[in-house]
Amino acid sequence: MAWTIGLLVVFFAVTIGVGVYCSRNSTDVSGFVLGGRCVGPWLTAFAYGTSYFSAVIFVGYAGQFGWRFGIASTWIGIGNAVIGSLLAWVILGRRTRLMSQHLGSATMPEFFGKRFSSPALKIAASVIVFIFLIPYTASLYNGLSRLFDMAFPGVDYAWCVIIMAVLTCIYVTAGGYMATAINDFIQGIIMLIGIVAIIAAVLMQNGGFIESLKGLAEVEGAVPGVYNSFFGPEPLNLLFVVILTSLGTWGLPQMVQKFYAIKSEKDISKGTIISTIFAVVVAGGCYFLGGFGRLFSDKIGVEQGMPVGGYDNIIPTMLESLSPVLIAVVIILVFSASMSTLSSLVLASSSTLTLDLIKGHVVKNMTDKKQVLIMRVLIVVFVAISAYIAINKDKLSAIADMMGISWGALAGAFLAPFLFGLYWKKATKASVWASFVFGALIMLLNMFMRPAFPAIMQSPINCGVIAMLGGLVIVPVVSLFTPKPDTSIVEDAFSCYDEKVLVSAKKSLGDR
């Protein structure tokens, strides 16, 4: 406990110090929300990665899918790295940066409003973000509860929630996006070092990597070798998880917004590599670790094939026999993962509500200073709401269910309109509305009327994948049968891609 407390004090002090340091550059909207659009590749890549991978993945998803799929769950981490990081940067990075700056948009709803010349679309997107992003923030605290009990036995978990909420409020309200980005970098380093050390320690408890694989091949009550096979016992369900957790990032406001702040062309290239490597180590490492969960069945306890205490009990049980120093590293790692994602979510929520709903609708004339002030107030409100939900999660079952479908609803509603908005001139306003309604509605129905769905769609994960893939079909099909967009508006939006820029000879041969 002494090690844990000591490291936590240092970690918290550095976090707050960064927030205070960055406060001088967060006095206007551009500085507070986008870091002045001059954030370098390392900070952007780490901000992207740490927003992507939270305690939900480390404790919840790694434990659950590792238990279900065995070592094949590593494919989820590989998919996150290749599709969720590498391809997201290559396909979305440059175009998002160019068009968002050209349109003067700082949020995803504002992008929809200006790209399709529809204030109503901006408002609708803002409402979807508000409904589904806030419950998602509450889920970030869940991964801490079991680990907190392990490190601080007898201490009320509510204190953990309150401490994390207060610290996040302090540095995000003080320093805005830049403070978040710098802290994400520090927290990302902790996550990289921590996950490698933990994997090595856990495998050594079972005689090393080869012996651990042999142990998985002999899991009691299962087909021999199924949990150390290439695709595991449920390849189709594994594929659905890979798609949702990988392709889904392309439509999440808090992820896409990272591309708005990139400084230069070379930073995109560097950021792509850094982000992908980060995802391989962190996501691949988390799911790889979870794949060995069944080796600890004697400690976890199994009833009717399910772990006693639920899936969230798997990872903490695997780690409870580690040394005090490694336990401290685990707590810092999970705090880092949770705070980095929480800060990104509340910044995205507050900026969306301020710039897309309040500004120009509730309050007609707002100075930069007033907008920043309102965003700071809303950050405190959103963090307080998420903390309240986390502390009272047992009493708020409906909201707890909504947390599981937030990812699918947001990505299902936004992924296709955003992607086609960047690449296709013929995408229509009606097609965007259709995608919004389909993605959000199908996930809400899944939450309230799940038994009425076909068996394959009763899982929120599978339903989320259907929502995303459905949007990719809906937008082009609806666009073909609805009124064409105004040519002048479309050409103006796409003109940013045709602007001439000077580059060095090593980038282009020119007319030589």
Characterization of this structure:
The protein starts with a helix and ends in an 18-residue tail after the last helix. It is built from 21 helices and 2 strands. 54% of the residues are buried. Strands 1-2 form a two-stranded antiparallel ribbon. The chain is 73% helix and 1% strand. The protein is mainly alpha-helical.
Question: What's the number of extended β-strand segments?
Answer: 2
**SSE sequence, one letter per element:** HHHHHHHHHHHHHHEEHHHHHHH
Mean pLDDT, to the nearest integer, reads 84
Principal-axis shape: globular
Percent helix range:
over 70%
Which strand order do you get reading across the main beta sheet? 1-2
CATH topology: Sodium/glucose cotransporter
**Total of DSSP H or I helical runs spanning 4+ residues:** 21
Biggest sheet character? 2 strands, antiparallel
SSE topology:
Elements: H1 2-22, H2 29-34, H3 41-52, H4 55-69, H5 74-103, H6 108-115, H7 119-139, H8 142-151, H9 157-204, H10 209-217, H11 235-247, H12 253-260, H13 265-290, H14 297-300, E1 302-303, E2 306-307, H15 314-319, H16 324-358, H17 368-391, H18 397-423, H19 429-448, H20 460-480, H21 487-494
Antiparallel strand pairs: 1-2
